[in-house]
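Summary of Year 1 activities. Much of the first year was spent building the evaluation harness for sequence design. The harness presents a backbone, in tokenized form, and records the residue chosen at every position. We chose the following record to illustrate the format because it has been used consistently in internal testing since the harness was completed.
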């Protein structure tokens, strides 16, 4: 192995992004609940529930005591909306995490000590000369040493199309 590689690894570290902590399901529920419309619905449901319970308690004998049902129905709808939204966000986050894990297992060709080696993208280090084929996604910052008929699509970085 290249003796300078160990020094570069020690000084610059690994080619890994820090792992983002995933939000818990309860945090996602809280985020979903903090929608202005849901807060307004919750306030109106509480008022409706309070009025319905008051009317049920103060109702005369023989009268129906179901005025509280409207408030409960709205509360149940809010709970379903919050749970569905949080579950959807949690599932999306989980899929993105799996996709990012797959991206970590790519292999690239680098030149170390004058010879080509196939290594994991996470083992690329400062000073490595990387061989890039057509259609490859470059997962490092670097300096272009040599190219032939080069065309780079930077739209994912710059946001420009065309």
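For this record, the design step produced the sequence shown next.
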């Amino acid at each position: 192995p290249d003796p300078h590689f160990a020094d570069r690894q020690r000084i610059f570290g690994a080619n890994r992004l820090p792992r983002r902590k995933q939000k818990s399901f309860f945090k996602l529920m809280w985020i979903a609940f903090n929608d202005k419309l849901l807060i307004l619905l919750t306030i109106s449901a509480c008022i409706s529930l309070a009025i319905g319970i008051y009317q049920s308690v103060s109702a005369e004998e023989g009268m129906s005591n179901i005025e509280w049902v409207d408030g409960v129905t709205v509360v149940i709808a809010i709970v379903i909306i919050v749970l569905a939204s949080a579950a959807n966000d949690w599932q999306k986050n989980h899929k993105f995490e799996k996709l990012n894990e797959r991206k970590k297992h790519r292999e690239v060709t680098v030149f170390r000590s004058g010879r080509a080696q196939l290594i994991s993208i996470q083992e690329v280090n400062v000073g490595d000369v990387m061989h890039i084929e057509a259609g490859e996604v470059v997962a490092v910052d670097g300096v272009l040493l040599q190219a032939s008929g080069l065309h780079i699509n930077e739209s994912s970085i710059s946001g420009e199309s065309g």
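The helical segments are 3-12, 25-33, 36-57, 69-104, 155-158. Quantitative recovery figures across the full test set are reported in Table 2.
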